[in-house]
Write a structure and sequence with these properties.
Keywords: Membrane, Transmembrane, Transmembrane helix. With 96 residues, this protein is mainly alpha-helical. The chain is 73% helix and 0% strand.
Length: 96
């Protein structure tokens, strides 16, 4: 039997690893930026956008389209968590 005919039953799909690692990295810098206050949240939104763009750029080179999924999830979850943390801190206070 070839490996294609008898896949290992306990082996998890590779896309779960790619997506999971990217989400864990995003959670890490979200926590650090969230503790830094309002300025940290502005840094977080830029990190989320850069992270998502890098994931999308990596996809064709890695020939794994799971990177695009990871980028979209990072963008959606990252932006929503940024605005959620901003709301918890009392909203955006701009000095006019």
């Amino acid at each position: 039997m070839t490996p294609e005919q008898n896949p290992e039953p306990n082996k998890r799909p590779i896309y779960m690893g790619i997506t999971g690692i990217n989400l864990m990295v995003m959670i890490g810098y979200t926590l650090m930026c969230g503790l830094a206050g309002e300025e940290g949240l502005l840094v977080q939104i830029f990190l989320v956008i850069i992270h998502a763009i890098v994931c999308v750029i990596v996809a064709p080179f890695a020939r794994k389209w799971e990177w695009v999924l990871a980028g979209l999830l990072v963008l959606i979850i990252g932006v929503s968590s940024c605005f959620g943390l901003l709301e918890l801190q009392g909203g955006l206070h701009l000095n006019h």
